[in-house]
Amino acid sequence: MSSRREVPRPLGRTTRRSFLKGVVTVGAGLTAAGAAASACGSSVAKQGTRVRIWSWLTGMNKYVDAFNNSQSDIHVELSVIAAGVSGGYAQQANAIRAHNAPDILHTEYQGLPQILLTGGLRDLSSDMADLAGGYSAAAWTGVRPGARTWAVPFDLAPMAFYYRKDLFDANGLTVPTTWGAFRDAAAAVRGIDPGAHVTTFPLSDGAFYAGMSWGADDPWWRIDGDSWRVSVDNPGSQKVAQYWQSMIDDDLVATTATGTQDWISGLHTGKLWGLLGAAWSLGSLKKFIPEDKNRWAVAPLPTWEGSPPTNGMHGGTAFGVSRESKNPEAALTFLRWLSTDPAVPKIAAGFTSLFPAYTPNRQGARAEFTNDYFIGEPVYDVLDLAATRVPEWTWGPNSLGMFSTIQDNIGGAATGGPSLSAALKPIHTAAVADLRDRGISVIERTTS
Amino acid sequence: MSVSAPHRPSSDADSRCAPRKRRRKPPRRTGLAAFALAGPFTVLLVGTVLIPVAYAVYLSLFTDRFSGLGFESPRRVFIALGNYWDVLADPAFQVSIRNVVAFALIQVPLMIALALVLAMLLDSAVVRLKQMWSLAVFLPYALPGVIAGLIWAYLYSPGIGPIADLLPFDPLSSGAVLSSIVNIATWQWVGYNVIIFYTALQAVPKELTEAAHVDGAGAFRIAYSIKTPMIKPTIFVSAVFSIIGSLQLFTEPLILRTFTSAVNSTWTPSLYVYESAFVSGDYGRAAAAAVILALASAVLSALVMRLSKRSNR
Lengths: 448, 313
Description:
The structure holds two protein chains of two kinds. Helix content of chain A is 43%, strand content 12%. Chain A has helices at 2-5, 8-28, 60-70, 85-97, 112-116, 125-128, 137-142, 165-170, 179-192, 206-214, 235-249, 261-269, 281-288, 328-340, 343-348, 360-368, 379-388, 399-410, 420-437, and strands at 49-55, 74-80, 104-108, 152-153, 159-164, 221-224, 227-230, 274-278, 296-300, 317-321, 442-444. In chain A, strands 3-10-4 form a three-stranded antiparallel sheet. In chain A, strands 8-5-9 form a three-stranded antiparallel sheet. In chain A, strand 1, helix 3 and strand 2 (74-80) form a beta-alpha-beta unit. In chain A, helix 10 crosses helix 18 (399-410). The longest helix of chain A is centred in the first third of the chain and has 21 residues, at 8-28. Chain A starts with a helix and ends with a strand. By secondary structure, chain B is mostly helical. Chain B has two domains: 10-60, no CATH class; 82-312, Orthogonal Bundle (MetI-like fold). In chain B, 72% of the residues lie in helices and 3% in strands. Chain B has a two-stranded antiparallel sheet. In chain B, helix 2 (82-89) crosses helix 13 (283-312), helix 3 runs antiparallel to helix 10 and helix 5 crosses helix 11. Chain B is globular. Chain A binds chain B through residues 23, 27-30, 85-86, 89-90, 93-94, 97, 113-114, 116-119, 145-146, 148, 203-204, 223, 226-228, 257, 260-262, 397-398, 400-401, 404-405, 407-408, 410-412, 415, 417, 434-435, 437-441, and chain B through 52, 63-74, 86, 146, 154, 157, 159-160, 173-174, 251, 254, 258-259, 261-262, 264-266, 274-275, 277-283.
């Protein structure tokens, strides 16, 4: 009876909450609108601790269902949110501000330091200490900005070169292993089919551009004591910028966006012979052009001559626990299961090629993966190699905002605007100014 | 004085109160009715307009300050008008203002003129199937802005849509993207204005046009010298709405941004607000820019209304 009587109070709270949620959703704009409400966890409400998670990870509903069915102490409720900077990130930042954040937040490595600025994440250092040895170095450092653990790593996204092996073979082209050879291959493709390009270098994707720069082993951010060392316009990034600018100037690569109809039809019709992708691109190819079996192969990304072979990462997911979560233990139980349980790669094998951050799970992921799509080298051999080639890199506290700055500054590189290498300076200046503006301590390092 | 009078409203003893009482009775009833009728509106106005506006003004006076690496929770600091100076001094904001002003200067006269011509044609006796025509021009307005933006973006895209092949230039290039957006907005809003003008034209007394006809005025002369001046106030109101809409231009550039690099993240003031709040996470700056935008809209509308009153005199 007494619990019945309490009904009005929670109702009142929910009204205010749903009002705030409404404000947040409207605020987050078109991309995020409507996504907030689409909960798609298991429909059967079970007893147990309720844990709310917001995520845009493909297949998360399958993982959540499997977890909920495996035990009855914790019930995870998933809300699928829109991907990306002005989608899910905006929604999460607003929710943190409105003190209405879910227990678990989606925090890619690249976005983690910026989410930390909201003060909305729980320090997981002691909770995660026992797993320190289990993760690959890139993942572990990725969730430990400032030497404290802020998130639980899920997967890694080392970059790789996906290519039309059928076309390469038919025309006697070998897969380029260096960027010099890549340029020759690009020219050869233009010669063979004047309507085709070896790949596109999307000027509308700041995260991709950062990933390509990561491969040059000259990090944009470093933590130095209590300050950030910012260095975007550095020799490594200049090398990358100059190389791609000359590729663009000589019309050896396309510059159109990835993920568009145009791009998909290009991959399918042979207008694009390759893709500068990451571990998750396999899922994209299978999703966008499922009928193109036995055409595509994956190879390590070409590397720079005269320096140790390196490639960057593009994406990669981790999950944080909200500072205001009422059930942080339950949230962590789920996240530890998601990150380390062998059941997860088994589920993932059905729809993608999961590349787990937790190294003991890699063997399982490889064993479960059934290749019915690719030809050439085994996918996991390439990904394993690519993962060992990822150099050290720290994401800054404004990296998401900077992806947008990058897009604004390099957008005209193919149409007579500032070149990629000229754009690095304004990007650097904007990044430093933005941080200083917020009172964050910055040491500039301009070496070029 | 009769301080206690309100406590004894039924008392007939005081003759001075009697007429007052009689007068007060009907107002009390309409007061209740007014309250009941205005209640929902007031609640919505306060809850969805006034409180958010006040909150935005409040937010615009503060900024988040971090220390060191920024991993500790931020402090909210009062900086008075600091955000406003930052916004006004930001070259990106100035460019965004320039973009919408250029947009408004081209789009508003173009659309109003086009809508007026179409409304006159609908109103003239020669057009058959009036309802079908008015539905045809009105239909684009029924489409959500996002969908309209996507449709046009695909039509403009080289390699997918036909428009890039027909035109001698790329409609998504940096030189042409403004006119491409003008085209989308005009396509979408012209029908709405046609209907408004057409409705206003119905109110023009037939005697006037008949008299003009008898005096020897042709259809063009009647349209230009009789009908247009008669619906001038309507045209001005439409212009005000269109100008405000131009300042708030958001959906079309946001959609086109994923198709072309000619539209950057701060291309219009609304995009600037969006970028500041939801990409950079700087709520103070976003709120300041939003307040500036609102004030600019208010000032502009007032100006246009005053102009219209003066020209009506």
